[in-house]
Amino acid sequence: MGLLDWLRRRPQPIPEALWQQTMDSLPFFRHLDEDERQALKSLSEAFLAEKEFSTAGGLELTDEICVAIAAQGCLPILKLGLAAYREWVGIIVYPDEFVVRREVADDDGVVHEYDDVLSGEAWEGGPLLVSWRDVQMAGGDYNVVIHEFAHKLDMLNGDVDGMPALHSGITASEWEGIFHPAYDDFCRRVDDGEETIIDPYASEAPAEFFAVLSECFFGIPEVVDAEYPAVYDLLRRYFRQDPLARLSA
């Protein structure tokens, strides 16, 4: 029985060879200690049993695809638990970038349609969509899985506004007092034409700033800490993880 037969069933063990291959695929997995790897494995197994994977564009769904997405997606909630991803089930995987048809009304009420080319998207109350090619491109400051899963964390408490559902120890006023000045500063830097290590797309909206900074928090924590140390500390407390300490170790 393969992983694809396990979906929506009781958690079953991920084969050790496949798990080791997944752990070897990205630096931030290699920096986990053995206890963290085992906890991530158990969490990924529970995730695979709870979520429903499907594909589009002719892509064949494989164990490798499911485990790669599960492991990357579960890393941010390693200390938060699977309940942080409640209220949604579906994950749709495309072979490459995909097109979503958009409609927008202008000030005169005229509706305009256009095609939006995406590598990932999280729908409120619905599935999460990712490009398998982009999942495989993960590394450093780019991780489409963590980005879209961060949006799901943001959606958990309602508005997609860059502030996820907070747990004890972090207040909304504290989050806003640290997060929004950093976002405003980053927008200023981008508007001034500065070439930033952090993806300029983070300046699009507070929600994108949170998603992109979440990618960077796990992928290039030293950059987040150097440029926005207060944000790094905020994310460290929110995710209850310290990637920078893992690098030092």
UniProtKB/TrEMBL annotation:
InterPro entries: MetalloPept_cat_dom_sf, MtfA_fam, MtfA_N. It holds the Pfam family Peptidase_M90. CDD domains: Peptidase_M90_mtfA. PANTHER family: MTFA PEPTIDASE (PTHR30164), PROTEIN MTFA (PTHR30164:SF2). It comes from Azonexus hydrophilus. This is M90 family metallopeptidase. The lineage of its organism: Bacteria, Pseudomonadati, Pseudomonadota, Betaproteobacteria, Rhodocyclales.
